[in-house]
Amino acid sequence: MYSDIENSSQIFNLKTKLWKSRQEDRDVTTYYNQMVTLWQELDLCYEDEWDCRADSVRYKKREENDRVYVFLAGLNQELDEVRGRILGRKPLPSIREVFSEVRREESRRKVMLKSKAEDEVETSALVSKGTDLDGDKRRKPWCEHCKKSWHTKDTCWKLHGKPSNFKKKNGGDSKVLQTVNEDSQKQQIDSETPAFTKEQLSQLYKLFKSPQFSVTEPKSFTPFCSFAKNGTDHGEDDWMC
């Protein structure tokens, strides 16, 4: 009699632990192994004898289904999808088959979450790199044509070519080379500027206009003037320009 009471108390404790079991922060394998240990201890508490083998098979199948229900009930919420797929099957698979499928789903989710986390880190790194590049563009000259620093589009050799007086030196700095390019362009502009403007030529024309001067003002604004002294001979005072 005492043995029966002790056995009943042990069965009650084991079943209570099974009903209250939850996966929580453990992985599926650890959770499943705990459940298997409790089921094995519970099996030792029973000494069933069956007169009919068919009844034993039906009982074992019902017991297997009950264990599937208890195992699925303790899974975390993120595994609801695989839990629903298993419960929708007729007949229910064995507890081992259920465990294998749930573990595969858990592994798949871990891979997806890891990949997502890596993508987020990579995106964050790209944003940070882009910010640094923008900062560099603001701090130093930047060419919008060739996408390189230390010069602008106006002095880019890929657009305008290298200056005629450019000589490459070993270890030369690209900033110095661009400065040579800018200086050559400045010299070219200065060489194209005429020595006298149209207004200056006009003033010279008025200045030299007198009875002793004859001035011809061609269209090119290059003055021609001559000075003639009374008489037929030319001396040191005679001059032409």
Low-confidence stretches: 220-241
> Helical proportion?
55-70%
Instruction: Give, in order, the helices and strands.
Output: HHHHHHHHEEE
N-to-C span: 148 Å
Q: Tell me the number of structural domains.
A: 3
Q: Strand percentage, roughly?
A: under 5%
Query: Helix count?
Result: 8
Could you report the average pLDDT, rounded to the nearest whole number? 75
Radius of gyration: 50 Å
Number of strands: 3
Structure description:
The chain has 241 residues and is mainly alpha-helical. It has three domains: 112 residues, no CATH class; 49 residues, no CATH class; 43 residues, no CATH class. It is built from eight helices and three strands, in the order ααααααααβββ. It has a three-stranded antiparallel sheet with strand order 1-2-3, with no helix packed on it. A hairpin with a 7-residue loop joins strand 1 and strand 2. It is rod-shaped.
In short:
The protein is mainly alpha-helical and 241 residues long. The protein has helices at 2-20, 28-44, 53-73, 80-87, 95-139, 157-160, 174-192, 198-208, and strands at 213-216, 224-227, 239-240. It has three domains: 2-113, no CATH class; 144-192, no CATH class; 198-240, no CATH class.
Please render the helix and strand layout as text.
Blueprint: H1 2-20, H2 28-44, H3 53-73, H4 80-87, H5 95-139, H6 157-160, H7 174-192, H8 198-208, E1 213-216, E2 224-227, E3 239-240
